[in-house]
Write a structure and sequence with these properties.
Helices cover about 40% and strands about 10% of the residues. The two termini are about 20 Å apart. The protein has a 6-stranded mixed beta sheet with strand order 1-3-2-4-6-5, with helices on both faces. It has a single domain (about 1-270), classed as 3-Layer(aba) Sandwich (Uracil-DNA Glycosylase, subunit E), CATH 3.40.470.10. The protein is α/β, with parallel strands linked by helices. It contains 10 helices and 6 strands. The structure holds uracil.
């Protein structure tokens, strides 16, 4: 028992140390990048959208799976061409998702930021580097072992007329979330994960249809309220967004505990 406690403390200390190592900022816009597309979808950017009140993201409508009926590749093409909301006209790249399309676990963030818009891949900025470290140190996984996606597939900007500026991120509005939701539903139906991890309040509110914030929701697992495989509930584990850990290192321990819960579930099938 004592030995087990000592090993846990050692693991936790190693995890905290690893997360504390410097995270480098990815190259700025204009530097060499692997961005698949670097042209704006529309010439004139729409006006800045209002920032939604945080508590209004739970859907009042029943959560139903989308009926898009497309393969992941077809779906990615649909997302690239999507103009279902104003975000599609201001983005550089749609950020569809990345990783193993047969993953047991899907991580869901809020929406792409500046770096993700430039690269066309989710979680490639400082938050993404931290997520990679958490995956590696606690779960022994690489980003290519899991699937990573967002609630909205295009970068929500405070001022879409100035897409090259930093600090231009904002949370997606309820309308943008509703317009994008069928894509995530369909991704989940194609992947059929055993577990979803929501990163932060926005994806947790949206996927669990709740108005409660992440600090109240994390620390336990839920059944995802949408049926993906008949008769097999998908577990949902909410945890803090990596950006919250960058702002408040005291949250690292809670995240470690959430990821240990995920690890145990992936190893035993029990939660
Ligand atoms: N934050 C998110 O929620 N998603 C990303 O892809 C990047 C940062």
């Amino acid at each position: 028992m004592k030995r087990q406690l000592a090993e846990t403390a050692k693991d936790l200390a190693a995890y905290i140390r690893s997360l504390d190592e410097d995270l480098t900022e990815p190259p700025p816009a204009g530097a060499a990048t692997t961005a698949p597309v670097l042209s704006r979808a529309g010439k004139s950017a729409p006006a800045a959208a209002p920032v939604p009140p945080a508590a209004s993201l739970a859907s009042p409508a029943p959560l139903m799976p989308a009926k898009i009926n497309a393969s992941m590749d077809e779906l990615a093409e649909q997302v690239k061409a999507c103009r279902n909301c104003g975000l599609g006209s201001a983005r550089l790249n749609a950020v569809f998702g990345v990783g193993n399309r047969k993953a047991k676990v899907v991580f869901v963030g809020e929406g792409p930021g500046f770096q993700e818009d430039h690269k066309g891949e989710p979680f490639v900025g400082r938050s993404g580097q931290l997520l990679d470290k958490i995956l590696e140190t606690v779960l022994g996984l690489k980003r290519s072992d899991v699937y990573i996606a967002n609630i909205v597939k295009c970068h929500p900007m405070k001022n879409p007329a100035d897409p090259e500026s930093h600090g231009n991120d904002r949370p997606p509005t309820p309308d943008e979330i509703a317009a994008c939701r069928p894509y995530l539903d369909e991704q989940l139906r194609a992947i059929k994960p055993a577990c979803i991890v929501t990163l932060g309040s926005v994806p947790t509110k949206v996927l669990l249809n709740t108005d409660k914030g992440i600090s109240l929701m994390r620390g336990r697992a839920y059944d995802y309220p949408v049926e993906i495989v008949p008769g097999r509930p998908v577990k949902l584990i909410p945890t803090y967004h990596p950006a919250a850990l960058l702002r408040n290192p005291n949250l690292k321990r809670d995240t470690w505990e959430d990821m240990k819960m995920l690890k145990a579930f992936l190893e035993t099938g029990k939660i």
